[in-house]
Amino acid sequence: MCKLHNNWYLYIMNKKADHLERLSDPSSYFPGISIDCVIIGFDKDQLHILLLKWKERELWMLPGGFVNLDEDMDQAATRILEERTGIMLPYLTQFHTFGDVNRRDKNLLAEFASMLDGASFTKLNDFLKQRFISTGYLSLVNIQTCKPTVDIMSDYSEWIPVNQIPSLLFDHAEIVGKALEQLKSRINYLPIGITLLPEKFTMKEFQTLYECILGKTLDRGNFQKKILKLGILDRYEKMLSGKAHKAPYLYAFNKKRYNELLEKGIGYMN
Amino acid sequence: MCKLHNNWYLYIMNKKADHLERLSDPSSYFPGISIDCVIIGFDKDQLHILLLKWKERELWMLPGGFVNLDEDMDQAATRILEERTGIMLPYLTQFHTFGDVNRRDKNLLAEFASMLDGASFTKLNDFLKQRFISTGYLSLVNIQTCKPTVDIMSDYSEWIPVNQIPSLLFDHAEIVGKALEQLKSRINYLPIGITLLPEKFTMKEFQTLYECILGKTLDRGNFQKKILKLGILDRYEKMLSGKAHKAPYLYAFNKKRYNELLEKGIGYMN
DNA sequence: CAATTATTGTGTAATTTGCACACATTGCTT
DNA sequence: AAGCAATGTGTGCAAATTACACAATAATTG
Fold this sequence. Notes:
The structure is a homodimer of 270-residue chains. In chain A, strands 1, 2, 3, 4, 5, 6 and 7 form a seven-stranded mixed sheet that branches. A two-stranded antiparallel ribbon of chain A has the order 8-9. The termini of chain A are far apart. Chain A has helices at 8-24, 73-85, 106-117, 122-129, 172-185, 192-196, 203-214, 220-230, 255-264; strands at residues 29-43, 46-54, 60-61, 64-68, 93-98, 133-140, 154-161, 233-236, 250-253. Chain A folds into two domains: 7-185, Nucleoside Triphosphate Pyrophosphohydrolase; 198-264, Arc Repressor Mutant, subunit A (Orthogonal Bundle). Chain A contains nine helices and nine strands. The A-B interface holds A 30-33, 67, 69-74, 76, 94, 96-97, 99-101, 131, 133, 135, 189, 267, 270 and B 30-33, 67, 69-74, 76, 94, 96-97, 99-101, 131, 133, 135, 185, 267, 270. The structure holds a DNA duplex (30 and 30 nucleotides).
């Protein structure tokens, strides 16, 4: 896509203009369907979720949006995430569809309406009044290399540690919960380490990541032996130093080996 | 619900009338959303899927329908299955949402239209022309105690062995495939045996069921020992006889023990 | 009616894995 | 230089997995 736009700035501006246009006249959107993205990152012994703050209000939400009438839902998820955060992820995996009648609080909707009215978004306002079903999409990313930007709807976007998530719009807390549950139950089938860790990392970081997802502590010695035996890591002699005590080895993924195993499900832990 | 209708026949007729009314004027349906149910049974060493045949045509499909505007999707799944097959299942579990633009073949839709036109279903016809997203729901049932009936749209409903499934409407084959995949991957968390087998069964039947789901053979001796050790089965001295060779014991589930284990996931097989 | 046979129930031995903990190593701190 | 805290590795025991072998049984067969 870069090739079509040798001016990156123009490319972005085009996208933004298109987004804005559709919002002000949402007739090209599939009515009643939305998508919400749960983007999970890992930093400093904590899982983080990418959240957006609504303009001028202490109201947090997942990056979400609507499906174009001529667009597959999986494509829509990728587009929506890019529009709202600037993050381009070609593969997001669907994990659940939320279809309760009262999943969207009526009072909040009314507030939304009052905020939108002033800004010539009357059509969007009507569009939003109908009932919506939302499909949740999930992805895991390296928090360091993933710097979200902000769209017109939001003040700022932020990586929030899972234990510090504020109260969220509508049923977004439930959506996050379901995503974390999915992450845990599919831990052996998702590319956990390779997406959530930096290029090189210590064994301790890797273990902490697993402990966060599983919500329990693991035996250090056994974890290390199990992982090394799988052969998915290459060890680098260059050690991390500067901090107190014995310097640990740095490791990186042997991607070939890792992907081979991932197809059958890596039996890290039960 | 029985208590409200001491005349069962009347109750059914009311439901049918309501269904018919909504179909002839689909304005009370959520536009663009449908539900398809994959009901799985087991009989004679084969998994079976419950399919409906379209009136006067060799066209097979999953029992499906539309969501009322004032109805949670999970509720809708139960209602739809009952409307189309007479089977009442309070718990159906959602497994995937199918949202590709071209999931419904345009030619088939046109044929549908021609069939419906003659029968004063012009509004339904228009309703069906729009794009639809469909959410798949899954349930496991005992094929013996589950006798489907037929609704106005269908000639007959039938349990079809998974290896003999005919070509299906739209993307229903893909939906079935995804359901079977789900069944396999969640085998330790779904009430496999207790829903798919009759009250009493032999160890061989139980093993065959697992082999069908997993798509591989299991060692007989080890399977038997593993299951017995879990303590989820009660053995009955009354043996099955009449057939050649050694008569096997009959077993039934110890439901209390079974449900206890199921919550944590029963580690039958990996 | 005993021998046959296919199927069911159980046992065993070799191997692998899981688990808890101990010990050795290392590089910074004091 | 000694101490310390974290990393890397080893060891022993229990439990599980795996691949068979053997025994028991009831209808079939000659």
